[in-house]
Amino acid sequence: MLGVFTTEVFATELFTTVLELFKGEGHMRVNKIRSLVKISAVLGAGALVLTACGGSGFDDDEDDNDSAQGTNGGEEGELTSSDEALEILIGSSGEAETTAVEDAVAAWSADSGIDAAVSVANDLPQQLSQGFAAGTPPDLFYLAPESLAGYAENGSLQPYGDELENKDDFYDTLVENFTYDDEFYCAPKDFSTLALVINDDIWQEAGLTEEDYPQTWEDLTEVSKTLTSDDHVGLAFGAEFERVGVFMAQAGGGLMADDQPEADSAENVQALEYVQSHLEDGTFAYAADIGAGWGGEALGKEQAAMVIEGNWITGGMENDFPDVNYSVVELPTGPGGEGTLQFTNCWGLAADSSNQQAAAELAQYLTSAEQQLIFSDAFGPMPSIESAADEWTDNNPELAAFLAGADYAQFIPTLVGSVDVIGDFNAQLESLASGDPEAILQSVQSNLEAIAE
Amino acid sequence: MTALTKSRRAKGSKLQRGEGLAGWLFTSPMLLILGLFLLIPVLMALWVSFSDWSGRGSPLSGSVNFVGLDNYRDVTSGGGLDERNFGISMRNNAWYVVLVVPIQTALSLFLALLVNRSVLRGRGVFRTAFYFPSVTSSVAITVLWLFLFSTSGVINKILSWIGVNGPNWFNDPRGVVHVLLDKIGISGGPEALTSSSFLGISLWEWSSGPSIAMFALILMAIFTTSGTFMLLFLAALQNVGAELDEAGMLDGAGAWRRFWSITLPQLRPTVFTVVTLGLIGTWQVFDQIYTGTQGAPGKTTLTPAFLSYQTAFTGQKWGHGSAIAFILFVIIILLTLFQRWALRERPVPKRKRLRRLKSRTEEGSGA
């Protein structure tokens, strides 16, 4: 606040000086000239320091940059190697995740003899961007798929996926998620899918049994109607593509097909019309519209009998609503078959890292079955490798529906600029109840076409 | 501000040489800090707005090219999502400014008049109470606001006592003007408004007013800033001589007349300061959006300042982000210039002065 105020005062002061210069109220010309000289002196000095800064602060490893940018083309065989310590930047969901990652990295350090320090980002995209701009990014970091294309495009990332020994063990859809320009960039660190989460008590009160878990859209319509009462709606989910998109997948659609925008397909229109009709009759509702921050809150507060959420709901329920009983089942199939969405992050490797070899080895260690099972135990998401699937299901039989989704999950488009397109789509989905599905999808289609070129 | 600079300069001309050097010496730490952390970043951002810098390495390195006005063109007339987002953010912020600046100026003046009265008991308590929101961190207030205005929050509870079913404040993307029009039966815009558009959004969308979510933020801005500006008005009011007021009283002017013709004209420089600071502050809304709504619901709390940040840091379009920031800068400068012109000291026209004099003498002789 104080800083802002000083800035304002400074700006006003500078502004007044400049104004006086142009005003010409009959002041002495000498004064004018003097202030002109003053301003140009300040600007000149600024420019001077600017170039000096450019020379020293930012560019001192320009050669590194250029060579790294050069390798970005595809010679991923040449990872840099040195004995420098590794910096790891993560965007943590909380204490449990931070500790788990710190322990794992410490164990690897002790084993390999390479120092590595984990730091937690407050704002991951911002801190990453600053690192890339300054030429001093962290060596290894959490990377969201929607950021991949942007950073890969400007050469900030070093692809290393093909170097990994466990490369064939990752689920195909995850590898695809982190492939840009036919290059498998980074090791998926774990993943989550969406499933139908049901409040057991409301379910039983309504006289329903496990036999009644919805298998199709018709079933879903039916049970939602049965479960809707004055106190709660049948099904709730966030007003965003990241939830509503499951219906598009189940209808056989999706935003992209074979890397081409397909947002305005008949399947997608059908999906949105289905959702719209039930938002209208009150059996479905957006979480925000019933006063919940997200699906988990709606489920915990018994504002909704069923919600569409991902693996993270287990942690949320444990912390905020430990007494609520719930079951996780697979989402119903639509006219186009099964469909859900997956969410994941990978271990990004910086092109400017001086010890890529070690960082890639660390990434491989962190994505091993053993480590991923420990992580999953500590903070929720599922292992990204198939060889850990059986053990994970044994440990979490009640969550098996999430893992089953891995076989048919779609992912959020990862083109450069897709964040904005999805953001605009989400803004329109908020008023889907009163909107025109076809018009909404057409606008998404034209936005996608603009970035797909 | 102007008066200050002038007096400083008048004294400056009489300074000895050595004193000038000492002056520069004393100010140099601040000048260095401002140059390093303000001027240089600003100049670099200006360069980025004309370049194709991708966010990697220095913007001044050889691989970054000058692209002229491309970034500005994409944002203001590209026809794509960039233009639309910028249009939406301008719409939101324009409504925010139009509502916040006049109300906060009027309210702070009103509060200052109240606590300036010597007959008021416990003036100190009121002054502190009114000023309190201004010293509280904007992040804390935003969080408080999110709680107060939640669906089942305090505000809606109070509204329910008087039989009003409160809206779902921070999740309601409907524009206030459109909601009111809907109440009187106008739900769709006329052809003339829906068919023509500016900055990628139709004139009908421009007319929507602030969304209900934005409206809650408008209330917050008024609540937090009125105290600061009250202080400025209060300081100015203490300088208004009581003798002029008394003279007005003797002339038989009522309280209302005295306020408009005697007090307010003397507050003109302060009004200028308050409106200027208000304009600058309201066109740069960022904290509340960043910590609170992040542009939701339906992008109706997206502001150019937040859009600039988002475009650069999450969208990786650094040129566009900087271009938005500089367009915002130009808008603020233009508005301040306009406002300076509107609030300038106007010489009273001769005829009017004569008439006034005449009427006064007539009144005098009549009495």
Describe this entry's structure for a reader:
The complex is a heterodimer of chains A (453) and B (367). With 453 residues, chain A is an alpha/beta fold. Chain A contains 19 helices and 14 strands. In chain A, the strands form three sheets. In chain A, strands 1, 2, 3, 6, 7, 10, 11, 12, 13 and 14 form a ten-stranded mixed sheet that branches. A two-stranded antiparallel ribbon of chain A has the order 4-5. In chain A, strands 8-9 form a two-stranded antiparallel sheet. Mean pLDDT of chain A is 84; it is low at 1-76. Chain B is mainly alpha-helical. Chain B contains 18 helices and two strands. A two-stranded antiparallel ribbon of chain B has the order 1-2. In chain B, helix 3 crosses helix 4, helix 4 (81-116) packs antiparallel against helix 5 (123-135) and helix 11 runs antiparallel to helix 14. The longest helix of chain B has 36 residues, at 81-116. Chain B is globular and about 75 Å long. Chain B starts with a helix and ends with a helix. Classes of the chains: A alpha/beta (453), B mainly alpha (367).
On the 0 to 100 scale, the average pLDDT of chain A is 84
Shape descriptor of chain B reads: globular
Largest interface: A-B, 59 and 52 residues
**Major beta-sheet overview of chain B:** 2 strands, antiparallel
Morphology of chain A: globular
Query: What structural class do helix, strand and pairing data of chain B support?
Result: mainly alpha
Main beta-sheet annotation of chain A: 10 strands, mixed
Order of helices and strands of chain B: HHHHHHHHHEEHHHHHHHHH
Unreliable residue stretches of chain B: 1-5
Mean model confidence by pLDDT of chain B? 86
Cα separation of the termini of chain B: 43 Å
- Count of DSSP-assigned helices of chain A: 19
Unreliable stretches of chain A: 1-76
What percentage of the residues of chain A does DSSP assign to strands (E)?
A: 5-15%
| Oligomeric category | heterodimer
Strand content range of chain B? under 5%
| Helical run tally of chain B | 18
